[in-house]
Amino acid sequence: MEQLHAWTEDPRTAIQLQKALAPRVIREDCLPTSVDLIAGVDVGFEPLDPKRNVRVDPAAPSLTRAVIVVMEYPSLRVVEQVLHRQPTTMPYIPGLLSFRELPAILEAYACLEHRPDLLMVDGMGIAHPRRVGIATHLGLWLDKPSIGVGKSRLCGRHAEVPDVKGAMVPLIDKGEEVGRVMRSREGVKPLYISQGHRISLETACDWVRACLTRYKLPEPTRQADRLASRRTREGVLMREARSTGQDQA
DNA sequence: GCGACAG
DNA sequence: ATCTTGTCGC
């Protein structure tokens, strides 16, 4: 029961933890009768160096910026935004992304005043080598329905996706369908949709499509992405966010 | 052993 | 993820 909240920063232990979490993921629809609030989750990084110059090396100290945008469905109006920053402690390791980004996301989530019915996370759900991508890990931790919306492939193979908005193709890994590759918009790279937790693949794809407008990313993720990757400049960021978590550094 | 590899 | 200018196309 409490293993869902176990934590580590050691790569080897993290992999063991993922293997223990995998069988606890619910892949069937287990969400509210009515989904009225959808949260978009994304993370960005900003160099901590006073002398941010020429080349940025990913290993240099930085701040992890987690953003959560809550939208009302079906109006897709933003009802709340939270931005939280804290020192980055773990490096990016393919397959262990959640161990690098979850801490900041959880802090941001704790600042929310609204209770979203569904989470759309920038990254993979079960379309992961051990079936526990960041969307899944977050869903398990919060025991909340979640969907993974990735911009590129982590694992699995798939056919070419027709260049027609809404077209989908299965994403197969080790013989199982772990997600679907969707053309969210013509002329752009497709999205990698996968179940996070407490949702079926069909329903996950339905929600992503329901949140698409004229852009590549579904609104929840697009709005969160805007704030997460926006360059900081004289505190403008903090003023634009409706409410924010208090900083540490 | 070699290549692949979310953000 | 992050840096970075112009440029091609609807």
TrEMBL record:
Record-listed E.C. numbers: 3.1.21.7
Gene: nfi
Protein name: Endonuclease V
Organism of this sequence: Zymobacter palmae
Protein function: DNA repair enzyme involved in the repair of deaminated bases. Selectively cleaves double-stranded DNA at the second phosphodiester bond 3' to a deoxyinosine leaving behind the intact lesion on the nicked DNA.
Compartments, record wording: Cytoplasm
Catalytic activity, reaction form: Endonucleolytic cleavage at apurinic or apyrimidinic sites to products with a 5'-phosphate
CDD domains linked: Endonuclease_V (cd06559)
Biased composition (Basic and acidic residues): 222-242
